[in-house]
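Technical annex, item 7. During the second reporting period the consortium partners agreed on a shared format for inverse folding records so that results from different sites could be compared directly. Each record opens with the tokenized structure and is followed by the designed sequence. A conforming record, contributed by the partner at site C, is shown below for reference.
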């Protein structure tokens, strides 16, 4: 894929210090039914309930608000966490349905066969599952929702170094930012970005085939 780099905003793509997070401690979401959430993540997802916080004060923002904070432990020790509060109203609907697709949490599986086992297990427990979806031979994934509507994924990468393609990722981000800036500058619609996305997608596919 030959694309000429255009001048655009400077991107801080090089780390300025070697202070890097060691691992995921927890990712937190909202639930409106702590008991149902606990049942799903312990019985269906096989995770242990690992920790709770119960309080009526949020120290990070100095806000008075009653809540229970639940943590569920995954195989590597990282946790998925949820808040429930009886004072919290139901969330507003997103402005576009793709928000509920892009926003999701993905669990790692070691093999494609493990993904299929997850699909069968979830289906036996009454969970609606989409997939397996083969992402151009790079990942095999299934998609489903927890009782709160959070979109979940179980995925098995077929490239053991999938999260080590740093230079390619920097290049893709640079092209993306420049395509957006060029469209803004020229008053163009998104067609120029769509054209680049299609070229980039084909480039990714070609690299996946050559590495496979």
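Designed sequence (site C submission):
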């Amino acid at each position: 894929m030959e694309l000429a780099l255009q001048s655009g905003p400077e991107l801080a793509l090089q780390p300025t210090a070697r202070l890097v997070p060691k691992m995921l401690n927890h990712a937190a979401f909202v639930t409106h039914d702590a008991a149902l959430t606990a049942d799903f993540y312990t019985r269906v997802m096989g995770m242990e309930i690992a920790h709770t916080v119960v309080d009526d004060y949020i120290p990070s923002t100095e806000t008075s608000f009653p809540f229970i904070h639940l943590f569920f432990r995954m195989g590597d020790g990282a946790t998925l966490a949820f808040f429930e509060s009886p004072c919290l109203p139901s969330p507003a609907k997103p402005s576009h349905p793709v928000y509920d697709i892009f926003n999701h949490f993905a669990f790692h599986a070691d093999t494609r066969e493990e993904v299929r086992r997850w699909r069968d297990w979830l289906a036996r427990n009454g969970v609606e599952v989409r997939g397996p979806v083969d992402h151009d031979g790079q990942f095999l994934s299934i998609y489903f929702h927890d009782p709160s509507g959070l979109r979940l994924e179980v995925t098995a990468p077929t490239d053991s170094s999938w999260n080590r393609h740093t230079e390619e990722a920097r290049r893709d981000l640079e092209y993306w930012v420049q395509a957006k800036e060029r469209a803004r500058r020229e008053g163009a619609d998104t067609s120029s970005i769509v054209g680049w996305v299609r070229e980039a997608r084909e480039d990714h596919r070609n690299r996946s085939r050559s590495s496979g």
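The chain has a mean pLDDT of 88. The two ends are 19 Å apart (CA to CA). All partners now use this format for quarterly exchanges.
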